[in-house]
Description:
With 587 residues, chain A is α/β, with parallel strands linked by helices. Chain A has helices spanning 16-28, 53-58, 117-125, 143-157, 194-205, 252-255, 257-260, 313-324, 403-406, 420-429, 473-492, 561-579, and strands at 2-3, 7-12, 33-36, 71-74, 82-83, 165-166, 169-170, 211-212, 222-223, 229-230, 266-269, 273-279, 288-294, 300-310, 347-355, 370-373, 392-397, 433-440, 449-457, 463-468, 497-500, 544-546. In chain A, a hairpin with a 2-residue loop joins strand 6 and strand 7 (169-170). Chain B has one domain (8-221). Helix content of chain B is 34%, strand content 5%. Chain B is built from 8 helices and 2 strands; from the N terminus they run E-E-H-H-H-H-H-H-H-H. In chain B, strands 1-2 form a two-stranded antiparallel ribbon.
Amino acid sequence: MKALPHVDVVIVGAGWTGLLTAKELGSRTSLSIVVLERGAAHSPTEYANGMDELEHSIHFRMMQDLSLETVTIRHSTNDRAYPVRQHGSFLPGTGVGGAGEHWSAVFPRFLPDAFELYSRTVEKYGAARLPEDHALRDWGVTYDALEPYYMRAENLLGISGKAGNIRGEKIAGGNIFEGWRSAEYPTPPTKVPYFSELFRQAVNSLGHHPYPVPAATTSTLYTNPDGITRPGCTYCGFCETFGCMIGAKSQPTNTLLPIINKRKNVSIRTGATVLRIVHDSSLNRGKSRGVTYVDSNGQEFFQPAELIFLASWTLNNTRLLLLSKIGEAYDPITGRGTVGRNLTHQVMLTAATAFFEKPLNRFMGSGATGIMFNDFDGDVFDHTNLPFLRGGAFRGVSARSLPIGECDVLPKSVKAMWGSEWKKAVLHYYDRTGRITFIGDHLAYKSNYLDLDPTYKDHWGDPLLRLTIDWRDNERKMAEFATQKAVEIAHAMGAKEINPGVPLTHYDASRYQSSHVQGGAIMGTSPDHSVVNPYLQHWQTPNLFILGASSFPQNAAANPTPTILAQALRTADAIVDRYLKNPTALV
Amino acid sequence: MHCNVRRREFLTISAASLGGLLSYSLDGKICRFAAEHKPIRIPLRFFSKTEALIVSAAVSRIFPSDDSGPGAREAGVAIYIDRQLAGPYGRDRYRYTQPPFENAPPEFGYQGQATPREIYRDGLKSLTGFHLLPPERQDTALHQIASTHFFALLRRHTIEGMFADPIHGGNAGMIGWQLIGFPGPRMNNSDDIDKHYGEGFRPKPAGLAEVTGSTIRPSEDE
Lengths: 587, 222
C-alpha cells in the first residue's frame, strides 16, 4: 500500500453532499481537500448523446456497477438474504455527481413535526398508539433551525415552486400545510401538462389543496448566489435516470462543480473505491487518521487526512463504518449498538393507474413537472380513528413516460399478455395512461436494520451489506388508504378505467420504488442510540462527519434531498465557524 | 486469431421494414408501406440463421403485424435481440454473478446463474422448427412455454426491440414510435407542454443520431 501526502480534508463520495461540502469548505477556507469517487467523471456531451431509454432506464448506465458491488436483502432475521443481482427497488448512483445527476429533482421540505416525530406523536396520541417493535426517534434538530439552510439550498439550486406559507401567512395556490418559509421560491412554477391539469382540477373538486411540485428542474433561466447560470427546463421527458442535456435540472456537476473546479485547494480523484476508514481503536476518544482506497488499476493507497467526511450514500456510509469497525454494530435482539439501526425506505407507490379516453401527450414533461397535494400528509389530518400513523403526498406528474418502461401498463380488463389483442391495447393505451403516485412515511422498527452479510462478497473480497427490511401494518394500511383516495381522484379526473394500486404485502426488492433509503448512522441527542450528533459529527470520533440520509432516524415521506442538503450546509457552517477554531466535539 | 471467427450468417429481411419508406402516421392511424421489397442481408452476431428465423417468427407472434399496423418482424426485433445477446448484456456484464445461486421468491428478482445468452440457447431448443409452423400452431407452441423465464425475456426484449432507439437495431424506421405516438428524444417541448390539452400532439419522430447529428455508439457495439 502506498502512503500519499497528508491533506486537511478527505471526502468519500462526489455526490450532492460530498461536492456541496467540497464547495463550501473549498471556497470559504484554504484547506487542502481531496474528494474520492469510485465512479468516473461525466463528459459535457455525454448527456445530450444519452437520450436513450434502453441504455439509461433499462440498462441503468449511470447507476452503481452491481457486478462489482451490491447489497443483500431479506425480510426478517429468520430468513436467508439474497443478493440484489440486478437493480431493483432503489437505484444507487455512481460517478461524479452521484445519484444527483439522474434524480427526478422533486424538492419538497419535510413537515416541521417530522423532526420531532416521536415526542409529537406520543403527545397527541399517547405511547400506546406507537406500533409494536417501533424505533421512532426525534432528530435532535428542529425545522426552525434548518429553515435558513433549506432556503439556502433552494436558492443554490434555483427551485421552482409556489410558496404556501411565508412566515406564517398561508397563501392559496401553494402548499398551505408546509412549514413556514422565510421567502418565496427563487423561480416560478414549471408549466403544467394535460394530465397534471386534470389532476389539479379533480383534487380541487374534492376539496383538497393542489399546488405545483417544487422542482429542481428550474422553470426559467436562473443565476444562483454563486453566479452559476442555468437555462430553463424544456420538458424533453428524458429526466429521471438521465443527466440533463441542457443543465436545466440542477445536478452537482452543473451547480457545484464549476465553483469547485476554480479552486486549486480541491481535487477530485475518480476510480477511487474507499475500503476502510483508518482510525485509532480506543472506543471513546477515537480519531480517524485517513482512508484506504483502491484505484482502477487495483493499486491500494493510504490517504491521511485531518478531517474526514463520509458522503457515499446511506448504505455505503453504514457499510464503511461496519467494515472499519468504528462504533458498535447494532444487534436487534439485545438492542445494543448503534451502527446499522433504523433502516427505512419509503412508501412510494402508484396508488392508482388511470386510463383516459383522450391522449395525454405524456412524452412532454420532467421528473418534477406536475401537481401535488398534502391534505393527507404527516399529521395534517387526524389519525384518532385511523388504523395507521402519518401519511404522505399525492402527485400527478408526467414523468416515467418513456415507451419501453410504460407501454405494457394496461387496464386490468386487458387479459392478453401477447399477440394481436395485447398489441392493440399497447397502441391504444400508451398515451392514455397516467399514474397517481403516493409518497408516504416508512416508520422505523427495531428489526429493520443493516449489518454485514455472512456469505456474499464484493469484487475486492469484502462482505456485502445486508438489509433486513419488511413492511408492517402501519405501511400496509397507509397504502390501502392512499389507494382508496387515489381511485377517488382518478374517477374525478374522468378516467375510463382505473387499476387500483397493488397492496403492500412484503417488501419487494425487485420493484423500483424510490432511491430514498435512510438510516444506519442516525443522528440524535445521545450516543446511546445514535451514531452522529445533530451536526452529523461522529459521537466518539469528532474528526469524522457522516453526511446524507444515513443520519435520518426514520423516513419522513417527502423526498429527502432538500433536507440532506440543508443538513450538509448546517454542518459546513459549524465546521467553518466553530470546529476549525477548536477541533473537538460540537455538542 | 482465425479459430474464433464464426461462420458468418445473415438474416434477410425486406427493405420496406428498414425504414425511410413509411409514411408518417397520426395517433391511432395505420402506417402505410411503400411497395418495395428489395431484400437486405444483415450479418448476425450471435444467432445462427435458423435461430434468427425462429426468434423472428416468435416475436412476430408476440407483437404481430395485423390490421393495427406493422409489428416486430418489420421493426427488426430479431436483429435487436441478436445484438443485445452478442454484447455485454448478453454475457451478464452488468449483473452481480457471484455464487451461491439460490432459489428465491420472485420479489428478490432473477437469482439464476444462466446468462441471457445461455437462456436463449437453451430456450430455443424448445422451439425447434417453430418458423416452419403455421401461425395457429406457433401460438400453441408459445402458450406451452409462456411460464418460462425464456419466454419472459423474449417478451421483454420484443418490447425493447419495438421501442428502443433505432441505433440498437430494432424499431426500424421508428415503426414502434409511430405506432404509439412517441416522437423520440425531442429536445424542446417548452412551447407545447401546456397546450394541446385533450388532443394528440404528434411531432414527427426522430432518433438520437438524427437529433444530435452525431454518431452514437451503443454499448452492444463495444
